[in-house]
Amino acid sequence: MYKNLALINGVLLAIMVFLNGMLSSITGPYMSTFIFHVLGFILILMISIAKKNTLSNLKELPLMFFLPGVLSVITILLNNICIPQIGITLTIGVSLYGQLVMSSLVEHFGLFGMPVNRFRKEKILGFSIISLGIIVMITM
Fold this sequence. Notes:
Elements: H1 2-27, H2 29-50, H3 67-86, H4 88-109, H5 123-139
């Protein structure tokens, strides 16, 4: 079930990146990033109010848990800058490769409190195939 949810998430991300890239071509990368996050903030605020979530424990959170908000803005902005220049397919392909490499490092070294899951040599074939695909996409 979770693999299906991850697949759906990938489809939604592709649609989101595409639409935000189109918005960026109309309003510019900074304004489209702003619109994206304001609308996201309004939506999650409404959901949080409906769920009666509270902010009482925010002061107790380590600063590292606020970093994803900053990274989200940077990620969306970089997508908005890259899509008009190299297209959505290459932007998403290279981004996914970066995510794959970083997530493998996080698991291998147990970063951010993740359980250690050592990189096995069997994964090299998968990385090689993906790398070859990215190279083909870049050169064609």
